[in-house]
């Protein structure tokens, strides 16, 4: 619903990003309600996603009435921590794959075996 009287939207610590992307919902709200001048919705449980930030950014195009927006410092930190966890998981996988490839070569290499290259190259295919 649109509102011509809503000037200040302050909902800190109320968005959690669990069921859907609330940042995108705020972006769609701001597109429909052009009277809002001050916005604040920072939360330590809010993880910023690309689609939500795009929707919020598109709401500001052509909207000259928004005067101030509270910085999303808590949400930024939560997003950084979420991405760090994902990156750490992927880096652990890389280390494990490197370790497995090294073990394959150590197990199958012999300077007296003429076909020593064939077996390791076939075994490493799932990891390369």
Overview of the structural elements:
The protein has 128 residues and is mainly α. It has a three-stranded parallel beta sheet with strand order 1-2-3, with no helix packed on it. The protein is rod-shaped and about 85 Å long. The chain starts with 7 loop residues before the first strand and ends in a 5-residue tail after the last helix. The chain has four helices and three strands, in the order E-H-E-H-E-H-H. The protein has helices at residues 22-32, 50-60, 73-108, 118-123; strands spanning 8-10, 38-40, 68-69.
Summarize this entry quickly.
The protein is mostly helical. It is built from four helices and three strands, in the order E-H-E-H-E-H-H.
Ordered list of secondary-structure elements with their pairings:
Blueprint: E1 8-10, H1 22-32, E2 38-40, H2 50-60, E3 68-69, H3 73-108, H4 118-123
Helix pairs in contact: 1-2
The structure class reads mainly alpha
Strand order of the largest sheet: 1-2-3
Tertiary shape: rod-shaped
Order of helices and strands: EHEHEHH
What is the averaged pLDDT score? 79
Strand content: 5-15%
* Helical content class: 40-55%
Q: Please give the largest β-sheet.
A: 3 strands, parallel
- Cα gyration radius (Å): 25 Å
Question: What count of helical segments does DSSP give?
Answer: 4
Q: How many angstroms does the end-to-end distance come to?
A: 53 Å
Query: In total, how many beta strands?
Result: 3
Low-confidence stretches: none
């Amino acid at each position: 619903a649109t509102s011509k009287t809503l000037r200040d939207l302050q909902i800190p610590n109320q968005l959690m990003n669990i069921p859907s992307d609330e940042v995108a919902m705020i972006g769609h709200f701001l597109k429909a309600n052009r009277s809002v001048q001050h916005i604040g919705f920072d939360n330590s449980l809010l993880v910023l996603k690309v689609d939500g930030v795009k929707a919020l950014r598109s709401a500001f195009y052509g909207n000259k009435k928004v005067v101030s927006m509270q910085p999303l410092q808590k949400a930024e930190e939560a997003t950084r921590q979420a991405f760090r966890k994902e990156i750490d998981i992927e880096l652990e996988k890389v280390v494990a794959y490197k370790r497995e490839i090294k073990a394959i070569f150590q197990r199958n290499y012999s300077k007296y075996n003429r076909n020593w290259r064939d077996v390791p190259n076939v075994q490493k295919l799932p990891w390369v």
